[in-house]
Known about the structure:
This protein has 9 helices and 9 strands.
Amino acid sequence: MISEFNQINELFKEMGEIIDSPINIFVIGGAVLLYQGLKPVTKDIDIVVETKLEFLNLQKFLKKIDFKTEIPGKDYNHMNLSQIFKRDDFRIDLFQKNVCGGFSLSDGMIKRGNLILDLNNLKVFLVSNEDIFLFKTMTEREGDLEDCISLAKGGLNWDIVLEELQNQINLSKKDVWITWIGERMDLLVDKGLVIPIMKKLDKLRGNFFDALEKSLEENK
């Protein structure tokens, strides 16, 4: 477990010393919550890069500093996990573009990213809380719902959450994701979280089921 973001900072600085080609990494998940004081510890560092070249180069550099690869477990069934790297207390979940099913690092997410380190060829961005919230509604990992509650209590721009959700659906052409997110949002509401965009989400969910029913009728 990692209890201080400074530990992650030092790792990034170590990486920055050996990386010799430009790589932009976007940190999502618990590490960002740790940075903001919304979480006391995190067990992994979730990193997304935009391009295949960045992904391949980052893999190479991680192996140079003694990180070893590991096979993903069942908790990652809904995630397009590209690779897991481990070294001592550090565990890096590395993704190239796509993170959860059809969900990917979009232009909007990149623009909302907060640059926290600029280390020669390595730039480190933290993904916005709104985007982390959305990513965490797509997983089944233990504790992600509690992280969603912490993010919401810290204050979210719900319009951005809804806009990015619709953007992701359009990009992926996977309308069915609204049903999965809707179920996760229902669980959050059951836990007492007030979600101002629930009526709009319910409408999107209803539209999906109406279209599905129509399609089934036409194919009878």
